[in-house]
Specification:
Structural class: mainly alpha
Strand content: 5-15%
Strand order of the largest sheet: 1-2
Largest sheet: 2 strands, antiparallel
Radius of gyration: 19 Å
Order of helices and strands: HHEEHHHHHH
Shape: globular
Number of strands: 2
Helix content: over 70%
Distance between the termini: 30 Å
Number of domains: 1
């Protein structure tokens, strides 16, 4: 389940994640702001996944198999996209609310006020990192997705669940890190967080886990038939 060799994309990932660490340790960047950027990383990955699903629906296949409680039906690709937006959006909402509550970055107020305050909270350094993450994930996800030809063969079901394993690990660490921030241990936990994030991204083969899960599901359905 572990990757055997690092690619050029992996080295770029290391550099991208070391920038906020360097900023916090040597340039006086606010650790809370950098953790907020990592929260927004979840949104970036979700939006990119919607684009990939929409491209598959428009240019490859308009319908695909929907697995639900042991039954299989054909559903429109737009149904997969709608389900992903609602389900993933709920996940992002819970994660951000927990982050805001633990860090106390935003005073109590209505929900719209909380989210409209994010650009101001990010500031120049946070916005710079957000743009770097957007550029990195756009190139790393979308370019490789099409250049490899994966878009021609991947199922919408697998594509829909692709972000979850990475994001689950990342955001658990983000929430734990936000707790440490309240004790003034931002620099230390920033170091721990970046090290853990890089380790999981580089050495845990998430794609293989998804492929195995998909294969098991197909075998289960074939056995039932």
């Amino acid at each position: 389940m572990f990757k055997r060799a690092l690619t050029k994309s992996d080295f770029l990932l290391i550099v991208v994640n070391l920038i906020p660490l360097y900023g916090v340790w040597f340039e006086g960047w606010d650790p809370k702001t950098m953790f907020l950027v990592y929260c927004m990383e979840t949104v970036i990955i979700g939006l990119i996944n919607v684009i990939k699903m929409a491209c598959v629906t428009l240019f490859v296949k308009s319908t695909d198999v929907w697995e639900n409680n042991g039954s299989s039906t054909m559903q429109s690709g737009w149904f997969f996209i709608f389900f992903f937006i609602i389900h993933y959006g709920f996940f992002v909402f819970i994660q951000t609310q927990m982050f805001f509550g633990v860090t106390g970055m935003i005073p109590e107020g209505n929900m719209l006020m909380k989210y409209s305050s994010i650009p101001k909270l990010l500031g120049d350094n946070g916005m710079l990192m957000l743009l770097i993450f957007i550029a990195y994930y756009t190139v790393q996800n979308i370019f490789s997705f099409f250049s490899s030809g994966l878009y021609k063969i991947i199922s919408l079901g697998r594509l829909m669940f692709e972000p979850y394993l990475r994001i689950f690990v990342q955001q658990v660490v983000v929430i734990l890190g936000s707790m440490f921030l309240s004790f003034g241990a931002g620099k230390i936990f920033m170091l721990v967080f970046v090290a853990v994030k890089i380790f999981f991204e580089l050495f845990i083969n998430f794609d293989r886990y998804l492929a195995i899960a998909e294969k098991k599901q197909r075998l289960k359905e074939r056995f039932k038939k």
